[in-house]
Amino acid sequence: MSAIQVDRQEEEMKQKAQKMATQAKNPIEKLRYQCLQRGAKGIKGLGRAFRIMDDSGDKKLDLEEFSKGLRDFQISLEKHEIEKLFNDIDKDGSGHLNFDEFLKALRVTFEEFVNYYSGVSASIDTDAYFDLMMRHTWKL
């Protein structure tokens, strides 16, 4: 797959995510789509930002750190959406988000994964080459 094809697919993914972000009702979906608008590395970047958000250094985020971090990462959510998002992600009800809770909430759905890779695979000539590319990319 050429760099031009990858760039084109990345741009298509960003545009689709932008459209989906405006239609999303659930704060987790809004966050996920806003990350995907930054391309394939958007969610990964937010995962890195988790460590930066952790002002106290205790490897977990309280609501204040989480809210500030989302603003710093330029995520556009209303205050009530941030509070709902925080409470939805905080599965154990501790009042803090740990890294695992945070990443599990942002995980791309199976349908999103299939849709994205269907587009990628359509531009590849053979199944064997697609398989090789995926194994190399994901180090499988």
What features would you highlight for this structure?
mainly alpha, Recoverin, domain 1, 140 residues, Calcyphosin-like protein, Ca-bind, single chain, EF_hand_dom, 2 strands, EF-hand-dom_pair
Task: Summarize the structure in words.
The chain is an all-alpha fold. The chain folds into two domains: 106 residues, EF-hand (Recoverin, domain 1); 31 residues, no CATH class. The protein is built from eight helices and two strands, in the order αααβααβααα. A two-stranded antiparallel ribbon has the order 1-2. Helix 1 runs antiparallel to helix 2, helix 2 crosses helix 3 and helix 3 packs across helix 4. The two termini are 18 Å apart.
Topology:
Layout: H1 3-23, H2 27-36, H3 42-53, E1 60-61, H4 63-72, H5 79-89, E2 97-98, H6 99-106, H7 110-122, H8 127-138
Antiparallel strand pairs: 1-2
Helix pairs in contact: 1-2, 2-3, 3-4
Pfam families: EF-hand_7 (PF13499)
Protein name: Calcyphosin-like protein
InterPro entries: Ca-bind (IPR051581), EF-hand-dom_pair (IPR011992), EF_Hand_1_Ca_BS (IPR018247), EF_hand_dom (IPR002048)
Quickly describe the structure.
With 140 residues, the chain is mainly α. It has eight helices and two strands; from the N terminus they run αααβααβααα.
The percent of residues in helical segments reads 55-70%
| Mean pLDDT metric | 81
Number of domains: 2
Give the strand line-up of the largest sheet: 1-2
CATH homologous superfamily grouping of the largest domain: EF-hand
**What profile does the largest beta sheet have?**
2 strands, antiparallel
CA-CA gap between termini:
18 Å
Number of helices: 8
CATH architecture of the largest domain: Orthogonal Bundle
Number of DSSP-assigned strands: 2
